[in-house]
Amino acid sequence: MPAVVLNGKELAEELRHDLSVLVKDLKPRGVVPGLAVILVGEDPASASYVLGKEKACKELGMNSFDHRLPADTTEDDLLRLIASLNQRSDVDGILVQLPLPAAIDAQRVLRTIDADKDVDGFHPVSLGKMLLGEPTFLPCTPYGVVKLLEKAHVPLKGAEVVIVGRSNIVGKPLAVMLMQAPYHATVTVCHTKTKDLASHVRRADIVIAAVGHPGTITADMVKPGACVIDVGVSRVDDATKVKGFRLAGDVDYDAVAPLASYITPVPGGVGPMTITMLMYNTVYSACRRHSIPFPPRG
Question: Domains of the chain, with CATH numbers?
Fold first, then answer.
């Protein structure tokens, strides 16, 4: 039986509808959630992502404060901008688009963001609270993965989860989230130094690929009935496409789909959930900053 395709676009639309209703309900109270996004330089992928955030804010009735800075912006200038945004009452969330130019210390920049406005979930305070299981902003891509699993009712309690990739953006936070309540999964994190990767992946009930290398997960590595989540997105040259390339995930989709119980496509799987969870965190921040009850976070 072919795998059930987990459509991130459809779930993102459902969540955004709920958020739009909540944003509308906040306006009579004088609260309009506001997101400030900072883009340094002209990286095409980053610029496209920022446009997606601007569009999402507009569709939800939120305020979007966008700051596009030249690539030669100094670290001090960037830190001053963040400090000013920290003080603004109309800004509920601040996001600095990564990667930053090599001359700028990204960790110092992220630490400068007010932890109460860290809607990307990368501030040390946010990560520390997540590790302790306390309420906080959760990193958007891992949060989106968890929401997809919840929507599909994929059994998580005691499940063997193998995450391939240990980045601070996806792999590490996702491992922490899944091993804690209410999910209680048994999590293994693999990476470039893992010996015999296939043997680890083969025993997984849930495989999550997040390495950014097309075709890393092949059919012989996946046990029948496993749930396969593909976080990776890479550009692959393709002369048949107008743009000369296509997007490919870390999973050999065509070969793995007949074996899996659930699978995410690329594009259209995890990707749409990332921006949606950023919007979710921003609305959550606005409610928290104005002492307004927020719906349970699931």
Answer: 29-114 (3.40.50.10860), 140-271 (3.40.50.720)
Q: Whole-angstrom Cα distance, residue 94 to residue 21?
A: 22
Catalytic positions are: 53, 97, 120
Question: Which pLDDT tens digit goes with each residue over 244-286?
Answer: 888 899 999 999 999 999 999 999 999 999 999 999 999 999 9
pTM of the model: 0.93
